[in-house]
């Protein structure tokens, strides 16, 4: 189940996220989730490469 998360975002970052979301036909929320998933995936891959 999804969890609600209140996040304070600086206006310039919010504007950049909104622009990217629109370019990718996503909501801002959907785009933030996409970016977080990609960051977690890359982090896991980098950790496995170190081993």
Brief digest:
The chain has two helices and no strands. By secondary structure, the protein is an all-alpha fold. The protein is extended, with a radius of gyration of 14 Å.
Explain what this protein looks like in three dimensions.
With 51 residues, the protein is an all-alpha fold. It has one domain. The protein contains two helices and no strands. The protein has helices spanning 11-23, 28-50. α1 crosses α2. It is extended and about 40 Å long. The protein starts with 10 loop residues before the first helix and ends with a helix.
Task: Detail the topology: elements first, then pairings.
Layout: H1 11-23, H2 28-50
Helix pairs in contact: 1-2
The domain tally reads 1
Strand % is under 5%
Question: Could you tell me the mean pLDDT?
Answer: 95
Report the structural category: mainly alpha
Instruction: Kindly state the percentage of residues in helix.
Output: over 70%
Helix count equals 2
What's the β-strand tally?
A: 0
What low-confidence regions span 5 or more consecutive residues with pLDDT below 50? none
Order of helices and strands: HH
The description of the largest β-sheet is: none
Radius of gyration: 14 Å
- How widely separated are the two ends? 33 Å
Molecular shape: extended
């Amino acid at each position: 189940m999804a969890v609600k998360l209140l996040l304070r975002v600086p206006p310039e970052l919010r504007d950049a996220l909104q622009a990217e979301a629109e370019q990718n036909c996503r909501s801002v929320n959907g785009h933030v989730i996409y970016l977080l998933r990609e960051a977690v995936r890359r982090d896991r891959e980098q950790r496995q490469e170190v081993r």
